[in-house]
Amino acid sequence: MTDLYLSAYPALAEQLTKQGIDVEAVKAKLKRQHIETPSWGYGNSGTRFKVFPWPGAARDVHEKLADAAYIHKLTGIAPSVALHIPWDKTDDWNALKQEAASLGVSIGAINPNVFQDQEYKLGSICNPSGAIREQALAHMIECCEIMTKTGSTLLSLWFADGTNYAGQDSVIERKHRLEWGLKELYKHVPANGRMLIEYKFFEPAFYTTDLPDWGTSYAMALKCGDRAQVLVDTGHHPQGTNIPSIVSFLLDEGRLGGFHFNARQYADDDLIVGTTNPFELFVIYHELVTAGDKANEVAYMIDQSHNIEPKLEAMLQSVLNCQVAYAKALIVDRPRLLESQHGGDVLGSHRILTSAYDTDVRPLLAKVREEMGIQPDPIAAYRADGYAAKIAKARGSADGSLGGYPG
Ligand code: PSV
Ligand code: MN
Question: What structural domains does the chain harbor?
Fold first, then answer.
């Protein structure tokens, strides 16, 4: 199969060149792609009904780093790992930073956890109790310090705050508490860092959520300052929401901080990226490529928790699906698309876009990987490799989840 893809490359390159695409420039961009994988995607996690332990699932931050490094070795485009605190807490951050570097990866976004402790039953920075709000703030400030120690430039915030019943709490007061907490926290974000504000329309709260949508995150980011931006988790919207248009608006406003990529069918399903929604993923990347330099700082992170799938293969597949979507977005004939759009050609424009989507980019990606010195087919390489069997033997089936709400 691999040979088949590589041998199909010259014909594809010729076809793309005829269309006016600079194939060398496309390959250069693909080699610079950067997808961050989440530490929590390597450990056991599941649904509220059951956590099925996976043989070889990472049991601590060291094993998570090793697994992330393995995914990077196979793909060449996953050089950083997001950490979740306190799940990944260590006494010696400098040593962890060195350990990551020695494995060929770096520490990416720092994700505070203000949803797991008993105190947070009624919320964190929106909690009716001032003492609990302060506790949540203190934890997030500690995460800013961890950023400095690890060299991370991203603080990635998600709050489980909300209410379950009408009248349970004052929605306006909760908004004021949210604004207070975010503004206070922003003062502690390292000068070279950014604060990404994630939203989610429901769950675990079922009546109101304090940060339910991109507009609320955007409004809060504006109140905080230039280095506060919105984080789009692709699983956090009501059905039918047009995520690419949100992406394009935020990019143009300079407020798209990053992504948590995953796929969903119904709610926040945390499935492998691009499995239910490959066209949506492609259009998201199309908006990013169209935005040019405005997309330079966007952080591309995966946020998945796998229950029944092999953890490493699921992560690998996710990274590769982002690569496919990006490759297809890079070969959109943009000058022709713009001309067609300006001419008001509804279906002609759509066709230009879908013709890139319909292109089989596997030969292009096989060539890119060959030039990067990695295996042209990472899934085949993973399946032929002994790493998964080795860690299954060494680590066994650790019981239990990461210790709380499953992603
Ligand atoms: C919440 O569902 C979320 O998407 C947030 O990003 C969390 O930090 C992550 O999942 C892990 O629980
Ligand atoms: Mn997320």
Answer: 1-21+332-383 (no CATH), 33-330 (3.20.20.150)
